TrEMBL record:
It comes from the Eukaryota. Signal peptide: none annotated. It holds the Pfam family WD40. It comes from Toxostoma redivivum. InterPro entries: Centrosome-WD_assoc, WD40/YVTN_repeat-like_dom_sf, WD40_repeat_dom_sf, WD40_rpt. This is WRP73 protein. SUPFAM superfamilies: Tricorn protease domain 2, WD40 repeat-like.
Amino acid sequence: ASCIQHRLVVRDASSLQILQLYTCLDQIQYIEWSSDSLFILCAMYKRGVVQVWSLEQPDWHCKIDEGSAGLVASCWSPDGRHILNTTEFHLRITVWSLCTKSVSYIKYPKACQQGMAFTKDGRYMAVVERRDCKDFISIFVCNNWQLLRHFDTETQDLFGIEWAPNGCVLAAWDTCLEYKVLLYSLDGRLLSSYRAYKWPLGVKSIAWSPSSQFLAIGSFDEKVRILNHVTWKKITELDHPATISSKKTIVYKEVEKSPTVDTERLTFPPTRALASSLFSTQSKYQISQVPVSLQYIKPVADRANPKVGVGMLAFSADNCFLATKNDNIPNAVWIWDIRKLKLAVVLEQLCTIQGFQWDPCQPRLAVCTGISRVYLWSPAGCVVVQVPGEADFQITSISWHSSGNSMLLLSKENFCVCYLEREEV
């Protein structure tokens, strides 16, 4: 699904053929599929309205108007039959049921980066609350929205929460001014509290492994610390040095190459395809000989939100690899072998890393750098894919299909779908 101003376009994922076209009341600012892909919500925050459309019954529609309370966020519950709307100034979260048309309210939600989290099985929801200048966490049962547990946290300014994939442990971390990661059980018991150091800037990013065995914590000191699920103690510390000296680490460096054009094909004026190939630069990967010095940027100390520390973390679907990005070295992706707890690969790009995402079915990483190229890494090697097109297609984010056969490439104004051929076994 994609939106153009006030129109919602639903396409077939394999052929991109338009299946449905819906017209909303105002400009769409956010869209989200239900878990079973039968409904899609369109949020219009300026108007304070959410419209829901059905793919099975195109004539059916639903409109939710928050009125004077306003609207700043909207999302589906895991069952795909309830919509959670957050009102302006985070006064409350309103839970709307599509089946019974009933309404439930959750008061005092906190405005933070990740203040609401569902377990993977969809049974429970955790919400960060702020009351009387203190942080609390409430855990709700999603089938009836009854409060299961409510407890306070030992935090100064709770920044975010995230469930382990098995739904047994909830991780909560404090503001960057206070290095503190708290781990709670489903019944609200504090299992463990972790603090790596005291005074400098603290936690910047967090990622659970798919098996729930490891919790990776990216910090402002340019290190990743991995905790184990048995004792919740640190098992290793992963550094991001500006110089790679280990011979066991493979460094892939992106280099530009001039396009080769057959002189016999040259005509005047040149054809459109030939003109684009003449003026488009291509790139490829080369394996660099260690030691390798990476481009290191020293952050400006007197500015807010300094570009320093590990800001991106992601585990592969098979738990074998961890991809990281150190914001001090913005052009590099670090890939760690979790089985050996060693650095396996570094991808050194020509441009700043905008995002990366693992294939949901196999250890294959897709990387984008804000230009019209996609970079794919797997244990077999690296490849650069040039996205065809006349205009300069600047890829800012990537989203894999659940089957791993295709991925969505997004720019600010356009999108395209990249289909990957499966090898015949």
